[in-house]
Write a structure and sequence with these properties.
single chain, about 350 residues, mainly alpha, MetI-like fold, two-stranded antiparallel ribbon, globular
């Protein structure tokens, strides 16, 4: 297991390094960031001050080296620059002009909001995480029972209806479901549902009591985002259970007089869960990173909405930070899924 983790961490490091190089080269070809910041203040002194503050007066190679230094957990800073960017960490070596510190990756500061990118992403990630888990729970709560039911009724009208509806669900893009749900349930039938077309997890209380939790705003985006994984879980559970239910040990369990409920949930389903676990991990990664348009349509405060707004405003630090953060989340979830797969299947541990 230690060797497995070491290989995965080495792979993560190589992928992130390649991603950092790609992102830096891609954004280095865009117009200079100072043009975004100066706005109407196009005087020479202001432009030169911004260029110097961002380090854009250095060569591209030096800019890249400083960007890697910011991302590295062990970094070297000049004393004045460390104070200016307010990097916090534990100092392990210090001279009169240099300070070597251990820290979290520094993603720099947003051009537009003037806030640390890490703060912006941490605040937005809460909304995305809640939305992703709500969508996944909705898909699992309906997908597994419907898949098992279809497998038990294989070849019947009910089986064909469930499979047919799930096929339609797979074919419908999430952004289309989002627009349809927002229009129908948040506008046309609003007086019956009481739901709004837009809204976030937290809202400002009109009575002046600060922020209040608005869970009803989670319903429509979670349903819209959960349609496709629901359809996938139905078909995956159904196809796996069909194979398992025809195995000899299932016939033996039934011959012993066990109830159908015990046969299904105690003997058959645990042996059909491994492919489902892999799919759940993949879908959780996709939901965390792929909810961009759904969040934007419902005005849900999350990583997707923050990223689209940053693209519209050319806020490069936020865009670069979001890409790196999303890549790390993909890796962590996939690593956890593989470790869970090892735990569920003793044959893999033996191999």
């Amino acid at each position: 297991m230690r060797r497995f983790l070491a290989q995965k961490l080495l792979f993560l490091f190589s992928v992130l390094l390649g991603l950092v190089v790609f992102i830096f080269i891609m954004f280095a070809s865009l117009p200079s960031p100072e043009q975004i910041l100066i706005g109407q203040r196009s005087d020479k002194a202001t432009t030169e001050a911004i260029v110097k503050d961002l380090g854009l007066d250095q060569s591209k190679a030096i800019q890249f080296a400083w960007y890697i230094n910011d991302l590295s957990p062990i970094s070297i800073y000049q004393m004045d620059s460390k104070k200016r960017i307010k990097v916090s960490g534990y100092s392990i070596f210090k001279t009169k002009t240099r300070d070597v510190i251990v820290k979290l990756p520094y993603l720099r500061t947003s051009f537009i909001k003037k806030q640390p990118v890490s703060t912006i992403l941490a605040d937005a990630f809460v909304g995305t995480l809640v939305l992703a888990f709500a969508s996944l729970l909705f898909a699992l709560a309906l997908g597994i029972p419907l898949g098992v039911l279809a497998a038990r009724k294989k070849g019947s009208f009910l089986d064909n209806a469930i499979v047919g509806i799930s096929t339609i669900g797979i074919s419908v893009p999430s952004f289309f479901s989002a627009m349809l749900f927002a229009w129908l349930f948040g506008f046309v039938w609003k007086k019956y549902t009481g739901l709004s077309m837009t809204g976030s997890l937290w809202e400002i209380d009109p009575m002046g009591n600060g922020r209040v939790l608005a869970l009803k705003n989670l319903i429509l985006p979670a349903l819209a985002l959960g349609i496709r994984p629901l359809a996938v879980f139905i078909q995956l559970t159904r196809n796996t259970m069909v194979d398992v239910l025809h195995m000899d040990y299932i016939r033996t369990a039934r011959a012993k007089g066990l109830s159908e409920r015990k046969v299904i949930w105690k003997h058959a389903f645990p042996n059909a869960v491994n492919p489902l676990v892999t799919s759940i991990g993949g879908w959780l990664s996709s939901l965390l990173a792929g909810a961009f348009f759904t969040e934007y349509i419902f005005n849900w405060k999350g990583l997707g909405k923050v990223t689209i707004e940053a693209l519209q405003q050319s806020d490069l630090p936020v865009i670069m930070g979001t890409v790196l953060f999303t890549a790390c989340m993909f890796f962590i979830i996939n690593l956890f899924t593989e470790m869970l797969y090892f735990w569920l299947d003793p044959r893999l541990r033996y191999e």
